[in-house]
Amino acid sequence: MKRNWHAGACAPAAQNDVPFCPSYKEVQRITPSSSAEWRPILDALGVSDRTIEAIEARAKVAGVPFQVELLASGAVGEGVFYRALANHLRLGFRAEIPPESLLMREEQCRQALRRPGGIRLVPAAEGPLTVLLIAPDRLDINALRRFMRRYPDIAEQIRIVPPLALRRAVQLRARESLLRLAVSHLFDTAPHLSARFVLNSWQGIALGALLVTFLAGLLLASGVTLLILHLLLSILFFGCVVLRFMVSQEVRSAPEPVSLKATRTEEMPVYTVLVALYQEAEIVPDLLMALSRIVWPRSKLEIKLVCEEDDHETLEAIRAQELRSYIEVIEVPRGGPRTKPKALSYALPMTTGELVVLYDAEDRPHPFQLVEAWQRFCECGDNLACVQAPLVITNGRQSWLSTMFAFEYSALFQGILPWLARRNLVLPLGGTSNHFRRSVLEGIGGWDPCNVTEDADLGLRLSRHGYNVQTITYPTYEDAPTKFRVWLPQRTRWFKGWAQTWLVHMRDVGELFRDLGPGSFVITQVLTAGMLVSALAYSVFAVTALALAAHLLAGGVLQETRAMLLLLDTVNIILGHAAFLAVGWQSLPRTERRGLWKLVLLTPIYWLLLSAAAWRALWMLYRKPHHWEKTPHSPSRPVSPQVRQRKKELRRSPFILPRVSVSREGAG
Question: pTM of the prediction?
Answer without folding.
Answer: 0.88
